[in-house]
Amino acid sequence: MDVNTRQTQAAGTLSPEIGPQRQPLNNKTTDRFWGYFFIFPQFVGLLCFSLLPLIMAFVLSLMKWDGFGERSFVGLDNFISQFKDEEFRIAIVNTLYYTLLTVPTGILLALLVAIGLNRVRGKVIYRLIYFMPNITMSVAVAVVFMWLFNADFGLINLYLKEWFGIKGPMWLTDTRFVMPSIAMLSIWMGLGGNMVLFLAGLQGISASYYEASQIDGASKWQQLRHITIPLISPTTFFVTIMSIIGSFQVFDQSFVMTSGGPAKASYTIVFHIYETAFVDFTFGKSTAAAVILFLIILSLTLVQMGISKRWVHYED
Length: 316
Fold this sequence. Notes:
Layout: H1 3-13, H2 27-60, E1 63-64, E2 72-73, H3 77-84, H4 86-117, H5 123-131, H6 138-148, H7 155-164, H8 178-203, H9 207-215, H10 220-231, H11 233-248, H12 252-257, H13 269-278, H14 283-311
Antiparallel strand pairs: 1-2
Helix pairs in contact: 3-14, 4-8, 4-11, 4-13, 5-8, 8-11, 11-14, 13-14
């Protein structure tokens, strides 16, 4: 009996259980069903709590409404009144100033801390310590910093006087120092979150790049400039976008610490939206200001995404 005949007989004696399993014909349909099943709750939440309120905000921005009576359509009058409103212009200028103070400084400090932590042992412990302010309630942090910035008995002015013989400024009551004071609080709170992102990006860089550069005689500065910074550019891009969005939405700090003062020096866009809605009860104008803020953030994000191709490098 030849080999082919024996293989044929052996194959015929195999039981159906040993043979190849048949794949059900509706596998794709079943996978698609479970996919839609699991995304359905999130889709409903997105629709009810994000998309519909966004659409209603655009509709309400075209109406005059005090929150109680009937609504009346006014077209673009709310937007025109906002651009003519001096307080709205002050809020935009203050918010831009706050963004310029917090975003570059916060990103640079977070990057430096991440680079330092990436070179030491015990990264988990240090990462936890640095990240704790990021999950602390902003109102509680603002109250603590109000005490630190107090001109009469605050710890900052106390140490400035005892250690350096300098009389500290009126941090929260001086128009020159109030926004930098709020910016310092925000930088301290956001440092841990940005640091964790940068640290993850640094740990994702292959060590072979640094080994090859050391063989070529590259210095630490050259490694930082030509390897580290380009390879973490996607992380830098994400951190920049999120930091700018967060800086334009600042509210808690100025509301708790200064109530927008002194002399509107810490009066931000979101504070203006709140005051227009819940103090003046002009919800149409308040929603128009919110729509303008949305368009500003959207425009800045699109611009950053457009120019990101010039400096964001993705590892192959």
